[in-house]
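[Automated response] Your request has been received and processed.

Submitted sequence:
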Amino acid sequence: MRRYVLLLLLAAATASSYSQDRKRHERPERGSQQMSQEERQRMREDMREAYRDRPRRTERPQREMSPQERDKLRRDVEDANRALKK
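Generated structure:
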């Protein structure tokens, strides 16, 4: 008899633990998560302002490769491809 009570208590504890864990991973209702138009606009402005302070990446002009450099690069790439196939 005690085994059955213990088994019943264990099953109840497991079930409640499972339901609590499941609730934690469920998505909240859509209505409560949607932003108003003003909130979206404010967020856009905040993001623009945050990125405005960052310095932009400057592109380095590409220099022309000599034929020797091009051949060396081609051989290196071919060797690397061969090494990958092994």
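Summary generated for your ticket: The mean pLDDT is 79. The chain has four helices and no strands.
If you did not submit this request, please reply to this message.
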